[in-house]
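Re: beginner question about structure tokens

> Can someone show what the tokenized structure looks like for a real chain? I only ever see the sequence side.

Sure, here's an example I had lying around. Input first:
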Amino acid sequence: MNIWVDADACPVVIKEILYRAADRARIPLTLVANKMLRVPPSPWIKAMQVPGGFDVADQRIALEAHAGDLVITADVPLAAQVIAKGATVIDPRGDLLTDANIEERLTMRNFMDSLRSSGVETGGPAAFSCADRQAFANQIDRLLAKRR
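And the corresponding structure tokens:
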């Protein structure tokens, strides 16, 4: 198992939870971003910088992720791609994305995108909260416990 992180928009607090989890469980963690990231010194943690551009980090994760890997992303199309390959996906708020719910997420994402492109102001996601952080940490703990 490898953990892949769509790191360009991943909250710092989520990255910190992942650093601790990767070290504790001794699982390779790779943060993929189009800017240079600083990561703690660890044989289990690395950062991968990709060229700038639309969805370049997502494309790299989709290429590298395999069945059994864990992907951390809020990007629904990327989540759908890696779920199709057999990877597990968690968004930064701790939601587990699966075959059972990814189509609904894609439909809603596409609907909201079409509203925005037609000029409708849809607002953004709710602010990231302590409850989101705790839900993410709990989900990571559950998945790593299953792995053992």
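Each token stands for a local structural state, so reading them left to right follows the chain. The radius of gyration is 15 Å.
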